[in-house]
């Protein structure tokens, strides 16, 4: 009996097993608590809504980001876009209430998409660009009435409406640049930035950082940012009237000066023929001062589809001769030397995508051949080849291709080498390239001036560290316990 008890007392295993079980429980508990305590909270999202009231149309963008990560980069993304039916809000100058009405369907969609409990805190912005800039120049009371109408509509929704306003050309260019670089994660990582080229209907923007530009030569083209601890001195310029729709008006106005009744336009397909009213052509401040005296009601717009002649006419709407700075783009506007990569979006993308020319490794000579052959295709054949494409766009792609090429090479001075640095883009990581995201990030202070403090270890590293340390500690306890019991069992028994 006493020998058995002795055996039991000397055998360390039952105690060791108990220690192992407790140890395993402690480690599991420790790691679980550490993981749960530090785990990112279940993905709750916050939302922001921006309405891009462009000259040709309005689009509503919904952005979302994880609720607890307001200050981190690369996390805000577009979850939905809704295209407003009908034209841009500036087209409703004579019946402003319709501008407000036109936004209702997309706003109702936004109300469905953003979870109800987030409605009140979700900021809602409307930014208008060159269409409203032009209307405001031409008739400021009409533009005020349009804004009142859209504000009335937007106030009827339960979002946190922050107002509707016209963006300056500088803001439009700069926020497009912020969007492109934010989405490509170039800002937080302090990488060399990408330039932004935006072609709208009524204006066009170019924005880039150039190491030989400090902002002093033409201060009005300079925008400075401090983002994630880095300073950026951005060159940006917006050319009002040089969006593709207004540029076409400039082109038509130019041609009607020579032939007021019928113009044979080399930028339109052979066989194309359309009656155009003078009042429609001259309704914009971009061309209104050029209206010929005693012009008829309408003129006949026909096409000849000659790319080389088209390029010549397109060039005539630019002034390449006057420049009071060290370098200019066109119309006497300062531009530093081009530098780095560029993302070209909006109409740049639509047009080059249609022409199958988004690949910029295609040499410029080949690009010209492709556009030239499209221009020379008879209008009937073009319509037959592209039955699903809006006829208005179809008719304009020849002009638009020639315009883009002239703007980039003669206007901004891209060479056959630097042209390869352009990427025609629509989206970056699922979000549309354009000024709206940058605008929202700025207004919600979502890009900090200084780099946010980051924990010394990333989350995964932290969890692994805690686990390894706990296991090590446990092994140590087991080893010492076993050694202790073994020593006890070897000690001579005193009888
Ligand atoms: O599918 C398309 N094909 C060709 N052009 C398009 C397409 N979708 C939009 N666009 C053009 O893109 C431009 C967008 O300009 P927007 O309305 O943003 O003007 P803004 O930025 O000057 O105010 C317009 O010229 C419009 O016609
Ligand atoms: Ca635009």
From TrEMBL:
One Pfam entry name: GDA1_CD39
Residues that, per the record, bind ATP: 201-205
Enzyme Commission number(s) from the entry: 3.6.1.5
A Gene Ontology molecular function term of the record: ribonucleoside triphosphate phosphatase activity
Gene Ontology biological process terms in this record: nucleoside diphosphate catabolic process
KW Isomerase (keyword) present: no
Active site, per annotation: 172
Residue ranges of the TM segments: 12-36, 459-481
Entry-linked InterPro entries: GDA1_CD39_NTPase (IPR000407)
Topology term for the membrane: Multi-pass membrane protein
Keywords associated with the record: ATP-binding, Calcium, Disulfide bond, Glycoprotein, Hydrolase, Magnesium, Membrane, Nucleotide-binding, Transmembrane, Transmembrane helix
PROSITE patterns tied to this protein: GDA1_CD39_NTPASE
Gene Ontology CC entries for this record: caveola
Recorded catalytic activity of this chain's protein: UTP + 2 H2O = UMP + 2 phosphate + 2 H(+); ATP + H2O = ADP + phosphate + H(+); UDP + H2O = UMP + phosphate + H(+); a ribonucleoside 5'-triphosphate + H2O = a ribonucleoside 5'-diphosphate + phosphate + H(+)
Cofactor requirements of the protein: Mg(2+); Ca(2+)
Subcellular location: Membrane, Caveola; Membrane
The organism's place on the tree of life at top rank: Eukaryota
Function noted in UniProt: Catalyzes the hydrolysis of both di- and triphosphate nucleotides (NDPs and NTPs) and hydrolyze NTPs to nucleotide monophosphates (NMPs) in two distinct successive phosphate-releasing steps, with NDPs as intermediates and participates in the regulation of extracellular levels of nucleotides. By hydrolyzing proinflammatory ATP and platelet-activating ADP to AMP, it blocks platelet aggregation and supports blood flow.
Family the entry assigns: Belongs to the GDA1/CD39 NTPase family.
Complexes and interactors: Homodimer; disulfide-linked.
Protein name per Swiss-Prot or TrEMBL: Ectonucleoside triphosphate diphosphohydrolase 1
High-level lineage: Eukaryota, Metazoa, Chordata, Craniata, Vertebrata
Record gene name: entpd1
């Amino acid at each position: 009996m006493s020998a058995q008890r002795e055996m039991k007392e000397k055998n360390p295993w039952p105690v060791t097993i108990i220690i192992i079980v407790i140890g395993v429980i402690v480690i599991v508990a420790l790691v679980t608590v550490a993981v749960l305590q530090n785990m990112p909270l279940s993905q709750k999202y916050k939302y922001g809504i921006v309405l891009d009231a462009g000259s040709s149309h309005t689009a509503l963008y919904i952005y979302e980001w994880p609720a607890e990560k307001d200050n981190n980069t690369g996390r805000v993304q577009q979850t939905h876009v809704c295209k407003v039916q009908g034209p841009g809000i500036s087209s409703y100058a004579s019946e402003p209430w319709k501008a407000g009405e036109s936004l209702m369907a997309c706003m109702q969609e936004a109300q469905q998409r953003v979870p109800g409990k987030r409605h009140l805190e979700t900021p809602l912005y409307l930014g208008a660009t060159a269409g409203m800039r032009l209307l405001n120049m031409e008739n400021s009371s009409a533009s005020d009435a349009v804004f009142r109408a859209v504000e009335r509509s937007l106030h009827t929704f339960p979002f946190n409406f922050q107002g509707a306003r016209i963006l300056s050309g500088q803001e439009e260019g700069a926020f497009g640049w912020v969007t492109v670089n934010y989405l490509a994660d170039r800002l937080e990582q302090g990488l060399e930035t990408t330039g932004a080229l935006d072609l709208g209907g009524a204006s066009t923007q170019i924005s880039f950082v150039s190491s030989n530009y400090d902002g002093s030569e033409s201060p009005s083209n300079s925008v400075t940012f401090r983002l994630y601890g880095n300073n950026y001195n951005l060159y940006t310029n917006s050319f009002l009237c040089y969006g593709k729709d207004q540029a076409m008006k400039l082109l038509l106005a130019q041609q009607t000066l020579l032939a007021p009744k019928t113009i044979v336009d080399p930028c339109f397909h052979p066989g194309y023929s359309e009656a155009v009213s003078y009042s429609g052509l001259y309704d914009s401040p971009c061309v209104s001062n050029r209206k010929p005296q005693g012009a008829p009601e309408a003129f006949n717009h026909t096409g000849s589809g000659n790319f080389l002649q088209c390029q010549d006419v397109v060039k005539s709407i630019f002034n390449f001769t006057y420049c009071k700075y060290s370098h200019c783009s066109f119309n006497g506007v300062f531009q530093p030397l081009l530098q780095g990569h560029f993302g070209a979006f909006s109409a740049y993308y639509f047009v080059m995508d249609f022409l199958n020319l988004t690949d910029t490794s295609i040499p410029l000579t080949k690009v010209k051949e492709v556009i030239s052959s499209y221009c020379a295709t008879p209008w009937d054949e073009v319509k037959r080849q592209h039955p699903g494409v809006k006829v208005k766009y179809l008719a304009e792609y020849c002009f638009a291709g020639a315009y883009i090429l002239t703007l980039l090479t003669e206007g901004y001075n891209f060479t056959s080498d630097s042209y390869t640095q352009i990427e025609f883009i629509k989206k970056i990581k699922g979000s549309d390239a354009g000024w709206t995201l940058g605008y929202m990030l700025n207004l919600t202070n979502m890009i900090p001036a200084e780099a946010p403090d980051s924990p010394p270890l990333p989350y995964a590293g932290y969890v692994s560290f805690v686990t390894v340390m706990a296991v090590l500690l446990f092994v140590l306890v087991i080893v010492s316990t076993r050694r202790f019991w073994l020593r006890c069992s070897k000690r001579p028994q005193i009888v």
